[in-house]
Amino acid sequence: MKLQQLRYLVAVHDNGLNITAAARQLHTSQPGVSRQLKMLEAELGLRLFERDGRALTRVTAAGERVIAHAAKILREMHNIRRASQDLRQADSGSLAIATTHTQARYVLPPVIRAFRERYPKVRLNLHQGTSEQIAELIAQDRVDFAIATGSEELFGPLVRLPVYRWHRVVVVPKGHPLAGGGKLTLRRLAEHPIVTYVFSFSGRSSLPALFEAAGLSPDVVLTAQDADVIKTYVRIGLGVGIVAGVAIDPVIDPDLLVLDARHLFASHTTWIGFRRGGVLRAYMYDFLERLAPHWTRRLVRDAERSETQDEVDRASAAIEIPYRGCQ
Question: Rounded to whole angstroms, how far apart are CA atoms 56 and 249?
Fold first, then answer.
């Protein structure tokens, strides 16, 4: 049995049993991957996949167990490399982060600037996307940290640490009818066209569900992933904006009026996550603590050792999670 065979096995599984896609990811040939998989099955005396001709159709029960062990072995190899890198070069390496536009634009710049000043030899890679796109990068093991809000069901393999809480706010141009005072209500909001995010949240965080529960049908004229795009269309009069409070910058948004909506919309928690069972390098702990000072290195290591997210959540309950942006 060769480590190369285990890499091929896990890559095929992670690419939905598409051998061609796995070969592309591994920078090798499709026949080479197929040949190594058959050699592994022959050595183990087990059928790991069901086949229809040359195509793999599903993973067998035995295959599921072998793949789980193979993935664990590959993770431990990765951990050994990271440990050796820390012993040899504690201040150099790479750090890949997947996050949303709002975090990349409004939250991370001062953290990354300070981090780069401390670790100039660390290569930073910042990937932006939706929660679904971030989850795909995690599944492909292409990033070290994910920073997102909600959508916990997409991130089961991660240890998720709460970073800060925030509220949605309503933004309108100065002189807008809603700027005239009076308590903001969902009914008053629904009287105007709305520009907001493509929310991936569900349940109590679902914007359409909130209006529906109040018997209202809002006129959502535009949705976007980018808070700056939303504010641009608010400025040209397309509609009333609903954005994250952290996306409001008094310096660049002096022409917009921010309306308190805490009584209308539930708060949200932005978290940072990393793979359970992985090893964080020293500078990764430093980055995490710069982003979320309430998560000291000792607390992060305690979270690393936890077996379930429930354990992490119970520990988080004893930590004061700050609010950011307009509250």
Answer: 52
Query: Which has the closest alpha carbon to 319: 298, 236, 304?
Result: 298
Instruction: Give the span between the Cα atoms of 168 and 171, in whole angstroms.
Output: 10
Q: Which phi-psi region, left, alpha or beta, contains residue 62 (left: φ > 0; alpha: ψ -120 to 50)?
A: alpha
Angle between helices 297-305 and 309-316 (to 10 degrees): 150
- 13 plus 137 within the same structural domain: no
How many domains is the chain partitioned into structurally? 3
* Shared-domain flag, residues 182 and 249: yes
Beta bridge partners of 127: 98
Query: Are 143 and 284 members of one domain?
Result: yes
Same domain, 118 and 243: no
Q: In degrees rounded to 5, what are phi and psi of residue 312?
A: -65, -40
Tens-digit pLDDT profile for residues 62-96: 888 988 888 888 777 776 776 666 555 567 789 99
Rounded to whole angstroms, how far apart are CA atoms 63 and 13?
10
Per-residue pLDDT tens digits for 116-170: 999 999 999 999 998 889 998 988 888 999 999 988 888 888 999 999 999 999 9
- Structural domain harbouring 52: 3-85
Contact 241, 196 (CB under 8 A): yes
Burial class (CB within 10 angstroms; exposed 0-12, middle 13-18, buried 19+) of 45: exposed
End-of-domain residue from the set 236, 259, 282:
259
Burial 122-149 (b: 16+ CB within 10 A, else e): beeeeebbbbeebbebbeebebbbbbbb
In a domain, 326, yes or no: no
Q: What is the pTM of this model?
A: 0.72
